[in-house]
């Protein structure tokens, strides 16, 4: 359970919206798990969240992380541009040069539909920053065979898409 903010520099990765899961720390060692719902304990038997914070207001400094992960985002992410552009700007801020954002989800999840992510990438205009978007189909039951992905209602889901945004800062 999260307590006061501590920044251990050995942690190189960050998961935004970890919820009841621990995907980030399972597949990307030295990964901080965050969530915006400080009442998470009422929905989860247990959680591994290190810090409660909103994805568009991260407490870390610039150029801090190598990878940022969003796993099955719900109620945050890329549903509308009013929220998604500030979120992506904040993620870019905390990512190092050549860092990347990885979004895993179902193609039917309105918070991580490929064309919306790509359009958000195209709307971001930060001087000296180039974003490279990639979308791929995945078989998460094979690639992440030992992991059970959950929705907010705690039912299982099976991500079938991985979206990657490479961040190149000149």
Q: Could you characterize the architecture of this molecule?
A:
The chain is an alpha/beta fold and 170 residues long. It has one domain: Vaccinia Virus protein VP39 (Rossmann fold), CATH 3.40.50.150. It is built from four helices and nine strands. It has helices at residues 23-27, 81-94, 114-123, 140-143; strands at 13-16, 31-35, 51-52, 65-71, 95-105, 129-137, 149-150, 156-157, 161-169. A seven-stranded mixed sheet has the order 3-2-1-4-5-9-6. β4 (65-71), α2 and β5 form a beta-alpha-beta unit. The chain is globular, with a radius of gyration of 15 Å.
- Span between N and C termini? 38 Å
User: What is the CATH superfamily?
Assistant: Vaccinia Virus protein VP39
Instruction: Please identify, by name, the CATH architecture.
Output: 3-Layer(aba) Sandwich
Q: In the residues, how many domains can be counted?
A: 1
Q: Which helices and strands appear, and what pairs or packs with what?
A:
Blueprint: E1 13-16, H1 23-27, E2 31-35, E3 51-52, E4 65-71, H2 81-94, E5 95-105, H3 114-123, E6 129-137, H4 140-143, E7 149-150, E8 156-157, E9 161-169
Parallel strand pairs: 1-2, 1-4, 2-3, 4-5
Antiparallel strand pairs: 5-9, 6-9, 7-8
Brief overview, please?
This protein has 170 residues and is α/β, with parallel strands linked by helices.
């Amino acid at each position: 359970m999260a307590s006061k903010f501590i920044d251990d520099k050995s942690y190189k990765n960050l998961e935004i919206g970890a919820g009841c899961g621990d995907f980030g720390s399972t597949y990307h060692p030295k990964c901080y798990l965050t969530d915006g719902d400080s009442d998470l304990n009422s929905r989860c038997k247990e959680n591994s969240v290190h810090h409660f914070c909103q994805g568009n207001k991260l407490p870390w400094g610039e150029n801090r992380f190598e990878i940022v992960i969003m796993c099955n985002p719900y109620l945050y992410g890329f549903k509308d541009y009013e929220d998604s552009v500030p979120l992506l700007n904040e993620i870019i801020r905390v990512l190092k040069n050549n860092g990347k954002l990885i979004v895993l989800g179902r193609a039917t999840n309105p918070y991580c539909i490929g064309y919306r992510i790509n359009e958000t990438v195209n709307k971001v205009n930060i001087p000296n920053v180039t974003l490279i978007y990639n979308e791929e189909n995945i078989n998460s039951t094979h690639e992440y065979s030992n992991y059970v992905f959950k929705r907010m209602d705690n039912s299982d889901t099976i991500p079938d898409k991985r979206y990657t945004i490479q961040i190149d800062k000149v």
